[in-house]
Sequence to fold (199 residues):
Amino acid sequence: MARIVLFHSAYGLRPAVHAAAERLRAGGHEVTVPDLYDGRTTESVEAGMDIKDEIGADELIRRAVKVAAGLGEGLVYAGFSLGASIAQNAVFADRAAAGLLMFHGTSDLREDAATEVPVQLHVAEPDPFETEDWLGTWYLGMRRAGADVEIHRYRGAGHLFTDADLADYDREAAERAWAIASDFLSEIDAAAAAASDPG
Fold:
């Protein structure tokens, strides 16, 4: 069982995020889903980014780190789009993190960023927010930081292709992403179990 903290996208904590959490719980994982927007949700990414700007990126990361700090060690950080960006920043603040699972988004890296966690990114191809050039830069930066990184691309899918309530939704891509993510979480769980076995 992985212990996961799952961060919502710029749309806020909508039903699709709860559905994702339930999918993960059905796989045997423990999942916490913080509400970083204080109950607000939106119907457009533009409105969601307005809320993000109103709260401030640094404050959102502070909220995420505070929630995670109360959940103990060995967390897998996960998120959708903006939430993936927040998860990435939060994992660098947690030396005891077990992994980073990212859907639809990434974040800039600081020069001193360092982590050895396994990282898995699922992203549309092409994605207007995650261009080829940027993903190459991001991958190299994460590798320099010490992370073990996988990138999975989904040709023809929309940006938030796992969200069944949005026009971006692509059922085939979403199911494939979740299957790959499930294997990733199982590997993290197995590695944690092996590390805790004194034999």
Summary: The longest strand covers residues 118-125. The chain has a mean pLDDT of 95. The beta strands are 3-7, 30-32, 75-80, 99-103, 118-125, 148-155.
